[in-house]
Amino acid sequence: MKATVAEAVEVGTQLPSLTVRFTRQRLVRYAGAATDFNPIHYSEHFAKQAGLPGVIAHGMLTMGTALRMVTNWVGDPSRVTSYSARFPRPVVIPDDADGVEVEFTGSVSGIEGSLVTVSIEARCGGQKVLGAARAEVDLGVRVPHRDHES
Amino acid sequence: MAITEAHAGRCYPPNDPYQVSAAKIAEFATALGDDNPRYRGDSPIAPPTFAVVIAAQAWNQLFNDPELELSLDRIVHGDQRLSFSRPFRAGDVVIATVTIDKVRVRAGSELVWATVDMSGREGDQICATQTTFYHAREALA
Question: C-alpha angle with apex B128: B126 to B133, nearest 5 degrees?
């Protein structure tokens, strides 16, 4: 862990944001790495059959990428004790070289002892693509209270 | 027959042990565009969401259960919860067990809630994950 994190953290602390470009190529790479070969992530035909507007990114690609923001911040990924998110709308990936940009932002929404909750937002084209995304990290040292210090 | 509310509580036999390798961890981290040094080298840990690589093996038991009549290509991930006792490490041999928690049948679709428990060879819990899947009963186009 970076020592500065526990010293400086308080509710409302913003994490350094992250912007990532998702392309079809990235989807193929993730499919292989995650062994998730659902064809809605590479075939327009199957995506439409599933009622989707087009090929969509794996929800776990979005969720896993979002967590980079948190693990970059704490340094040590083993500090993550829980992580949850909903997938309220699909991230549709066009069949071109540019793909789409997904923007991730996060802020500290809770502190209890050494446990810090980070609330994460992910946006694509201005739309939220993760819902109620929260990661809990154990900083290993009690975070000092600063709320009512004069 | 297809999946119904009555399948809630169904627990499948444990999956074949999954051996976590440094190469697979590095491949997964690269797919996420994550260059964290803890995911590389001789004794890496895995990115937290690597859990779904192992969980996916267990989910396949649902998707391949002929009684449930689920088709992978009509499944969309609704949400995901992960909780960790410790990170996955290269060399871990992981046993995953999947349970159907709840099923809701709607007109033309189903919602399925499932839990995968993942533990080490000694039965020590590493990670538990809850998932909601949306399944379209028929192809729509």
Answer: 150
Task: Please report which confidence band the pLDDT of residue B1 belongs to, taking 50, 70 and 90 as the band edges.
Answer: low
Q: What angle do CA A80, A58, B104 make, to 5 degrees?
A: 90
Q: Give the one of B32, B79, B80 whose C-beta lies nearest to A65's C-beta.
A: B32
Architecture of domain B5-136: Roll (3.10)
In a domain, A37, yes or no: no
The yes/no answer to whether this complex scores an ipTM above 0.90 is yes
In the block, tokens 């895995």 appear at B46
A35 occurs within a structural domain: no
The pTM of the full predicted model, rounded to 2 decimals, is 0.93
CA distance B9 to chain A (A): 22
Q: Is the pLDDT of residue A30 over 70?
A: yes
Q: Please report whether residue A83 resides in a domain.
A: yes
Residue A48, C-beta contacts closer than 8 angstroms, at least 6 positions apart: A54, B140, B141
Q: Is B121 on the interface with A (CB under 8 A)?
A: no
Residue numbers in A near B87 (CB within 8 A): 77-78, 80
Q: What is the mean pLDDT of residues A45-66?
A: 94
Give the span between the Cα atoms of B10 and B98, in whole angstroms: 9
Q: What's the whole-number average pLDDT of chain B? A: 94
More reliable by pLDDT, A50 or B46: B46
